[in-house]
Amino acid sequence: MKPLFTESVQSVMEVLFPLGIFVIVLVAGYAVRGYLLARLARWARTNGFRTGDVVLTAVRTPLLVLCLMLGIYAALEFSSLPAAVVGRADRGLSILAVFAGAMAAANILTGYTRMRAERLESVLPVTSLTENVIRIVVYGVAVLVVLNELGISIAPILATLGVGGLAVALALKDTLSNFFAGFHIVATKQIRVGDYLKLSSQEEGHVTDISWRTTTVQTLAGNLILIPNAKLTELIVTNCSLPARDLAVTVSLGVHYRSDLAKVERVAAEVAAEVMREVPGGVPAFTPFVRYQGFGESGIDLSVVMRAAAFADQFLVRHEFIKRLPLRFAAEGIVIPYPIRALNTDQEKAG
Predict the structure, then answer these.
(1) Are residues 50 and 176 in the same domain?
(2) Domain membership of residue 271 as a residue range
(3) Which residues contact 327 (CB under 8 A, 6 or more apart)?
(4) Residues 23 and 107 both lie in one domain
(5) What residues have CB less than 8 Å from 251, skipping those under 6 apart?
(6) Is residue 280, in this structure, part of any structural domain at all?
(7) Residue 279: beta bridge partners?
(8) pLDDT tens digits for 158-197?
(9) 240 or 49, greater pLDDT
(10) Cβ within 8 Å of residue 306, ≥6 positions away
């Protein structure tokens, strides 16, 4: 009985010991990822160390994969499994390590590219299209490394891809057309994420994303419009955010013919300057001005020119100006005339 009991204990230990090592390594990885990396990333963010924040955030998920792989590797080394099984498992773990490294590299590259794009006008602004291209390139290199590790020659594969590429290109003609049109849109920087567009097809809104197939435009009502990239390049597009995001806001009105025009100009400019300073979306540095347009049927026509920080801000700026101006005109004794039309019925009676 005693040898049998000893063998049973030994068998249980052969299972529990590798399992315990696996759990210890995995828990340590979770601790490093959840505590140490989180604190370091918070410190980097607080101190303005953006590069460190990008790297630490990018390696969190790959680090967990590597800890899982390391735990399995340590457990296998202390197990009593056959050498052939351990060898196959080690090869699988090495492949997993390559993809974990590729994941970390892709995350770091996309994060760094996004960070640089925020600091300056990048040659290739960051959208989902550019991020996906970066990931495809990195993972493509990882696949080639794995194939080389497995002893598979990649030359025949590349030759096959070259022959089959023509058939794929013909089959995916529309998709590839949208893909390269998206690259053209991003590279030329004539349409950027955040720009407000007016299309010749009557749609308008802010660009929220440029993907490999479509450009997403969000209307002021909150609806999303998906426009194929190739179709977008064929439309006549008015980009209200170029060359600058701020734009002129013009309000037209009329005053009575007996008005003191110098006083009207001064009061209207003062109200417009007050709107620029106090209303969100106004441009405080801009000095509004008044321009008289002509002699209208009911009074003297003029325009007040202000400026809004973005396309959507013009509505609130115009709203506040129209709300405030009549009150100030009334206080200053300036009259905004009603439309008046005189009818001469004597001529009609006389034929």
Answers:
(1) no
(2) 247-332
(3) none
(4) yes
(5) 303, 304, 306, 318, 321, 322
(6) yes
(7) none
(8) 666 555 555 555 555 677 777 778 878 877 788 888 889 9
(9) 240
(10) 248, 249, 250, 251, 272, 275, 276, 282, 283, 286, 288, 317, 321
